[in-house]
Amino acid sequence: EILLTQSPGTLSLSPGERATLSCRASQSVSGTYLAWYQQTPGQAPRLLIYGASSRATGIPDRFSGSGSGTDFTLTISRLEPEDFAVYSCQQYGSSPLTFGGGTKVEIK
Amino acid sequence: ELQLLESGGGMVQPGGSLKLSCAASGFSISNYAMNWVRQAPGKGLEWVSVRSGSGETTYYADSVKGRFTISRDTSKNTLFLQMNSLRPDDTAVYYCAKDSGGGYSIYWYFDLWGRGTLVTVSS
Question: Which of A6, A77, B9, B41 is exposed most, by the fewest CB atoms within 10 A?
């Protein structure tokens, strides 16, 4: 089973700042099969990125994903008020599919 | 509008049973693989089970195999999760999630989620 470790656990930033979130896998993720999701309290999780770098339908271009192998990054270029949330990565290249523990982006 | 709405959560004693429902609207669950994903309090997400769009294939996480059963009623466009022999570590918010693949494919990442239903297993 591939373990995904996300860092930092919490990121304190101000609106307009750049956010860089890390997702590290315990072994190489096959085929860059990595997705990112956004969760806000009481809301349904939302798919942001799949295939490590492809934005899902309707996702603003301030969200970008990169990486391969064991190291992946989600970048939010300029934080908007609605972007303060918890972000989780997921690998789907190996069975069982697994999720990271999440990074909370909070308002500084 | 595409939407998923879970229901059926609640409090149950260890060893008990519960059946969750997920009503889909805006698309047909016959055309997509459908999943259950859960999140224990303060923990990350954990995939639980999937049923393919064809309905012929199901998979389960090792942690629930033999205790949970995923099913669907296509006439009601509703997905179910029958949970038996519940344990305290099954306590979680259970989400219904649509696979991004169509037809008989399973892509294993999820482009539509519901808001979840809370299951609490406690005596």
Answer: B41
- Give contacts of A99 with chain B, Cβ < 8 Å: 44-47
Q: How many CB atoms lie within 10 A of CB B30?
A: 13
pLDDT tens string B5-39: 999 999 999 999 999 999 999 999 999 999 999 99
pLDDT digits (tens, 9 = 90+) for A44-90: 999 999 999 999 999 999 999 999 999 999 999 999 999 999 999 99
Residue A61: strand pairing partners: none
Asked if the C-beta of A53 comes within 8 angstroms of chain B's C-beta atoms, the answer is: no
CA distance A89 to B44: 10
Query: In this structure, is the dihedral angle defined by the CA atoms of residues B10, B98, B42 and A28, taken in order, positive or negative?
Result: positive
Helix, strand and coil content of chain A, in percent to the nearest 5, comes to 5, 50, 45
Shortest alpha-carbon distance between residue A77 and chain B (Å): 22
**Separation in Å, CA of A47 to nearest CA in chain B:** 5
In the numeric block, which tokens belong to residue B118?
């809370």
